[in-house]
Description:
Blueprint: H1 26-40, H2 44-57, H3 62-74, H4 78-91, H5 98-110, H6 114-127, H7 135-149, H8 154-166, H9 170-183, H10 188-200, H11 204-217, H12 222-234, H13 238-251, H14 256-269, E1 283-293, E2 297-300, E3 306-315, E4 320-326, E5 341-351, E6 357-360, E7 366-370
Parallel strand pairs: 4-6
Antiparallel strand pairs: 1-3, 1-5, 2-3, 3-4, 5-6, 5-7
Amino acid sequence: xxxxxxxxxxxxxxxxxxxxxxxxxxxxxxxxxxxxxxxxxxxxxxxxxxxxxxxxxxxxxxxxxxxxxxxxxxxxxxxxxxxxxxxxxxxxxxxxxxxxxxxxxxxxxxxxxxxxxxxxxxxxxxxxxxxxxxxxxxxxxxxxxxxxxxxxxxxxxxxxxxxxxxxxxxxxxxxxxxxxxxxxxxxxxxxxxxxxxxxxxxxxxxxxxxxxxxxxxxxxxxxxxxxxxxxxxxxxxxxxxxxxxxxxxxxxxxxxxxxxxxxxxxxxxxxxxxxxxxxxxxxxxxxxxxxxxxxxxxxxxxxxxxxxxxxxxxxxxxxxxxxxxxxxxxxxxxxxxxxxxxxxxxxxxxxxxxxxxxxxxxxxxxxxxxxxxxxxx
Length: 377
């Protein structure tokens, strides 16, 4: 079985990178682009001539060496191509730039050094979530080669599923995880990953079963407990969700994501809407703490009558929002102070002049507050 090693990239401050962002000679760059254009037109001999001229200008121009290797492959001159890719690996050895790592991985892949190429593309996909360099496609190609020669390689099937997932090819991802579980049904990681794909596809019941299997195999799997809680929260089984989040936090006391989810779910269970989940036009109830109090102000309406307005900001664990009161509503906050816990019941989500969400009160709105945490029902 191949060794899926982690990779570390050293930094050589003297290395002169040849990425597009660097200050390279414009003529050299234009020659490279001209060669690439000729390749697209399948004029390989002409492209090879252009790449050779670019290399004559700068023997350290790794992009030109890489493209020369590509065109030599097209021409069937594989031995010469491999020499070019060896050159790329040597030139890019010390660079940590994403483009350099991607070129090094490509060269290693062409040299057949799969176990060395994989960490390069994994690093690129980590830095390049939009996959602008096409590293995911190369990862999938490599893992397919591995499972072709090592069909019982559970890790390779698992990583292939991950690569398909990142590429948003969920059906292929699910097939890969199913294959990994056929080989090793006792892999908690594979059960977890399968559940993640199923949840993404909206199949919550099957996703829950996968997380349960993962937890049976590894009761300390905090992420599986967390994801189980997320599914139960979506299904509005808030009590069960909170128990799952509590277990995740018990296993990992620094699991801030689980703490956030628990607090958010707790608000829903008590009939409140987390501030982060507010949407324009909905009627809701909010529970939080006063972080800012505006002064009561008088104003003159266009019809010549006077009115009153006051506002305050409330925050919970998910965000903050402004609450606005008009005229008789202003008396609702008499005695309110900073740090008080406050409940605003039956208010409307509106937008201010800057299109920011705010809470508006009406005749149904009730506000309760206390210096103690005693009004959460």
